[in-house]
């Protein structure tokens, strides 16, 4: 397998799809953002998003800031083989999910199930967003962080075979042992080993020591709940579709989110009824179970 050629074809497809997408602008319904948040954007993004996009600062020097990015159906489901079928729309997909939520991120975190098809690199693709990311001093692609409790088939996944894309695998000792030879052959992949799945806070400290200051986490929902319960999430970017769908009983989080909506946008034109919300989470000490 020529992974470099596979990556080039993949990147060309993603860029073509991003350029072809029609992006109806959002309209601001509520804005309670204050000076404690970091505002980012360009003239192009500000027009489509109707203003600045906000990030929380890192919680402390020892852990990265972390956001969650999700789309849910009108009845609150986030599970779907293809998340685009949930009905969040093209603006959510290309401006938020593969855009503003990633442009300032040093890394994107996903569970092994989220990258199960193996044929993707999680990044930004629209040229305006690539340019915004560069203007923020970030490399072309965020570091790819994959969390898994089992060994990954490194030889079969493009993500692990493109040396110009840095990867971090977060796992437990048994997974690390099974992947030892494959990881040793790939110096662009770093490993973070937890003694157990409950040690995500300690894993975040190791990730921060690798120079990663900001993470955009995209799921799955079980990993998302673990991150919230561990007090590691500062921002949630949640887009709600106007239609029902998805796998039944698959909410992003099974309880009320411990945070406040500081920004609400509504979709326009063919995406009328879509709602985007930015939720700033309460300090970790107030919502750990």
Index terms:
single chain, 289 residues, alpha/beta, Dihydrofolate Reductase, subunit A, two-stranded antiparallel ribbon, 12 strands, 27% helix, 22% strand
How do you describe this structure in short?
The protein is α/β, with parallel strands linked by helices and 289 residues long.
Give the topology:
Layout: H1 3-20, E1 27-31, E2 38-40, H2 43-49, E3 53-55, E4 65-72, H3 90-100, E5 107-111, H4 127-135, E6 143-147, E7 167-171, H5 173-178, H6 180-184, E8 189-193, H7 200-209, E9 214-217, H8 221-229, E10 235-240, E11 259-266, E12 275-281, H9 284-287
Fold-level CATH name? Dihydrofolate Reductase, subunit A
The radius of gyration computed from the alpha-carbon positions, rounded to a whole number of angstroms, is 18 Å
CATH domain class name: Alpha Beta
Which series of helices and strands comes N to C?
A: HEEHEEHEHEEHHEHEHEEEH
How many strand elements? Answer: 12
Q: What sort of overall outline do the alpha carbons produce when their principal axes are compared?
A: globular
Mean pLDDT: 94
């Amino acid at each position: 397998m020529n992974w470099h050629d596979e990556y080039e074809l993949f990147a060309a497809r993603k860029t073509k799809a991003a350029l072809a997408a029609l992006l109806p602008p959002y309209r601001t319904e509520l804005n309670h953002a204050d000076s404690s948040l970091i505002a980012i954007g360009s003239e192009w993004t500000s027009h489509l998003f109707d203003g600045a996009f906000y990030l929380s600062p890192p919680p402390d020097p020892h852990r990265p800031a972390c956001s969650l990015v999700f789309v849910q159906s009108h009845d609150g489901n986030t599970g779907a083989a293809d998340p685009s079928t949930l009905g969040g729309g093209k603006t959510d997909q290309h401006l938020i999910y593969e855009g503003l939520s990633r442009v300032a991120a040093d890394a994107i975190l996903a569970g092994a199930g989220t990258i199960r098809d193996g044929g993707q690199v999680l990044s930004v693709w629209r040229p305006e967003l690539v340019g915004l990311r560069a203007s923020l001093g970030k490399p072309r692609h965020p570091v790819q962080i994959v969390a898994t409790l089992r060994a990954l088939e490194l030889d079969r996944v493009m993500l692990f075979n493109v040396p110009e894309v840095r990867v971090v695998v977060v796992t437990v000792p048994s997974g690390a042992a099974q992947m030892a030879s494959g990881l040793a052959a790939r110096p662009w992949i770093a490993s973070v080993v937890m003694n157990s799945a409950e040690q995500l806070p300690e894993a975040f400290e190791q990730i921060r020591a690798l120079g990663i200051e900001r993470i955009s986490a995209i799921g799955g929902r079980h990993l998302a709940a673990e991150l919230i319960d561990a007090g590691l999430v500062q921002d949630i970017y949640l887009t709600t579709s106007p239609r029902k769908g998805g796998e039944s009983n698959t909410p992003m989080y099974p309880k009320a989110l411990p945070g406040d909506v500081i920004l609400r946008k509504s979709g326009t034109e063919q995406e009328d009824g879509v709602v985007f919300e930015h939720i700033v989470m309460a300090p970790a000490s107030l919502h750990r179970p």
